[in-house]
TrEMBL record:
<protein>
    <submittedName>
        <fullName>Alpha-methylacyl-CoA racemase</fullName>
        <ecNumber>5.1.99.4</ecNumber>
    </submittedName>
</protein>
<dbReference type="InterPro" id="IPR023606">
    <property type="entry name" value="CoA-Trfase_III_dom_1_sf"/>
</dbReference>
<dbReference type="Pfam" id="PF02515">
    <property type="entry name" value="CoA_transf_3"/>
</dbReference>
<dbReference type="InterPro" id="IPR050509">
    <property type="entry name" value="CoA-transferase_III"/>
</dbReference>
<dbReference type="InterPro" id="IPR044855">
    <property type="entry name" value="CoA-Trfase_III_dom3_sf"/>
</dbReference>
<dbReference type="InterPro" id="IPR003673">
    <property type="entry name" value="CoA-Trfase_fam_III"/>
</dbReference>
<keyword id="KW-0413">Isomerase</keyword>
<dbReference type="GO" id="GO:0008111">
    <property type="term" value="F:alpha-methylacyl-CoA racemase activity"/>
</dbReference>
Length: 383
């Protein structure tokens, strides 16, 4: 097996909470050396606010404490940047410039540096200086409007779409593209990622619907199917639910055959009132068995029916187990890289660093600090 794909890539991570750390966690899983730079007093807020989440998204990283409000620490950062490939930060636009270590300054130190700025609204525009969280970005991107039941109020999802997909993964993609470019040209770049931007870009179906109909679909009606009864959610006898996604006619015919109801195939497969007869019939049918009984009955029928699982149930799904997506570490579940490579053995990342656990070793290696210098920096509070 070859070495991990990002072996030899060094990442300085100044981010905190969820989006930035999740981005750099993906890079760590791909083999990059990720050095997490934290404030000496307390470090990443997530250490205290959400310790289990902190552990999940910071495994396999190193922790160095550095107070960038002190000029000595800024000079240390510049020394580290000279030996790095990537820097990720998630401050509001202009903060790093005020500290004396913005992109224009750091690229003079290292022209091949890929500098990723992950923010809520990007580096430009009227909202660039606004505070925000996942729900705000989903609201502005039109995503929150589409979440919830028809004729109801928007519902907040437990999945952080903007933080994780619109922000973290979009930023990771930008970083990887920029690293490839820097390796070819010797010139780095500023990667400007706004979580609103990334979330809006994921709205391909909404945009296609607007292009087709001139407007988006109402909340609670699936944009892909248009509210078809054969692409919907149904309650079962045990109060749990199944997702019937027999969108193509062949899958619905397979379903009708498997449940012994060929008569259902003769009912109109249309959205709205025209499909109410089929929707009502399916509602009655699904309540005759439990969710698990339906899954067992339809497992080999090629009809796109799935039980709706809780997150806890999803961890022990046989497909999830077979793919090795979840494993136990210290008696608790953790997730590993959800990508498989045919000729590369991506090492399992383990262990979450204590605050500042690697400060002395990393600064000696990257900034040339000896014991005397480290002691002086610690005394000043810079590390």
């Amino acid at each position: 097996m070859a070495n991990p794909l990002l072996s030899g890539i060094r990442v300085l991570d100044l981010t905190r909470l969820l989006p930035g750390p999740f981005c750099s966690f993906y890079l760590a899983q791909l083999g990059a050396e990720v050095i997490k730079l934290e404030e000496p007093q307390g470090g990443d807020y997530a250490r205290m606010l959400a310790p289990e989440l902190f552990i999940l998204v910071n495994r396999g990283k190193k922790s160095v404490t550095l107070d960038l409000r002190q000029q000595q620490a800024v000079e240390v950062l510049k020394s580290m940047v000279a030996e790095a490939d990537v820097l990720i930060e998630s401050f509001r636009p202009g903060v790093m410039d005020k500290l004396g270590c913005g992109y224009q300054t750091l690229k003079q130190v290292n022209p091949r540096l890929v500098y990723a700025a992950l923010t809520g609204y990007g580096q430009t525009g009227p909202y660039k200086d606004r505070a925000g969280h996942d729900m705000n970005y989903c609201a502005y991107a039109g995503l929150l409007d589409q979440t919830g039941v028809a004729d109801g109020a928007p519902a907040l999802s437990n999945f952080q779409s903007a933080d994780l997909a619109g922000g973290a993964l979009t930023c990771a993609l930008g970083i990887l593209a920029a690293v490839i470019g820097a390796q070819a040209s010797g010139q780095g770049t500023l990667v400007d990622v706004g979580m609103l931007d990334g979330t809006l870009a994921l709205q391909a179906l909404s945009l296609a619907t607007i292009r087709t109909l001139g407007e988006s679909k109402a909340r609670g009606s699936d944009m892909l199917s248009g509210g078809l009864p054969n692409y919907s959610i149904y309650a079962c006898a045990d109060g749990k639910h199944v997702a019937l996604a027999a969108l193509e006619p062949k899958f619905f015919f397979n379903f009708c055959k498997a449940v012994g109801r060929p008569d259902l195939a003769a009912l109109p497969l249309t959205p709205g009132a025209d499909g109410d007869a089929l929707r009502d019939a399916l509602g009655i049918l699904f309540k005759t068995r439990s969710r698990d009984e339906w899954e067992t009955l339809l497992a080999d029928s090629d009809c796109c029916v799935s039980g709706i699982y809780s997150p806890q149930e999803a961890l022990v799904n046989p497909q999830v187990r077979a793919r090795g997506l979840i494993r136990m570490e210290d008696g608790k579940p953790v997730s590993d890289l959800p990508i498989r490579f045919s000729d590369t053995d991506v090492a399992t990342v383990r262990g979450c660093p204590a605050l500042g656990a690697d400060t002395a070793v990393v600064l000696a290696q990257l900034a040339g600090m000896d014991d005397k210098s480290l002691t002086a920096l610690a005394a000043s509070g810079a590390i």
